[in-house]
Amino acid sequence: MTVLPPPTTSSYGARRRDDRIGETYLDSTTIGERVQELGAEITRDYRGQDLLLISILKGAVFFMADLARAIDLPLEIDFLAISSYLHEHGQTGTKAIRFLKDLDRPVKDKNVLVVEDMIDSGLTLHYIMRSLGLRRPRSLEVCTLFDRPHQRLVDIEVRYVGFQVTDDFFVGYGFDYRQLFRNIPHVAYLRLEPQQPSLF
Amino acid sequence: MTDETASFSYYRGTKEPGFATRTELEAAKLFDYHRIAWEYEPRTFILEQDERGNILEAFTPDFFLPDLDLFIEVTEMKQSLVTAKNRKVRKLRERYPDIRIKLLYRKDFVRMAQKYGL
What's the pTM? Predict the structure, then answer.
């Protein structure tokens, strides 16, 4: 597991012109190298076995795509979409978290690796793991690009961690601000507007 | 705020919770949304007593999550409140080392609520 050093003022890239994108937190080379390491580790751990990677839309898609290509095994991929508190509860009053898109195929007796972009409280992942566990996969593990273990409310064993990160808001490499900036190849600080992201 | 408390599905207390702040209400909504059972102020911890046993200081955390065996204290952004609550949480941990408690800030709930924005 890698603990990041303090951020530097490295190259911002062409998209730096958008004032909402702050300094680089993690450049694409560093991300790529760590993804390759994770892929090699997963390859060793699952050699000779089946493997199904499950990504949670949308943030983890970029990490999932790179990680899958860094794993030297025949594998399957599938996707879940989870309702968002802000969009579902905040706007329509929906009462509880739910799958907006379920898996395309059963996971029973398969080795499942849930691929996340970020784990902090673990509340949502707790729901996902409980739901998938009921479907009786052979094994059920988690791989996350970013982790904030100090924010954890639910004890979840995370087998593969890319980086432990600070509590800042990020954009790029799948992380968004109001659906924007997921396609930036590096991870940058979100430079907050005067009206900060807010619940209430 | 009582009109918003009647529809909770995962509240496990016996009397209607009387939230002191908007942040507490939002925390309850977030637990409920994630299907996490919760109780509101179910237990008071004595932090300090005099030699006669009189209670000098006590602390009642805002939430208890029974399935996670975890107390949650919620705090606003005001530094004076944060400092006071940090001190109480630290004291509780010293006196009750088996109790698991977490101090959550308003920004933590903002972050949780934004997870999986689709």
Answer: 0.82
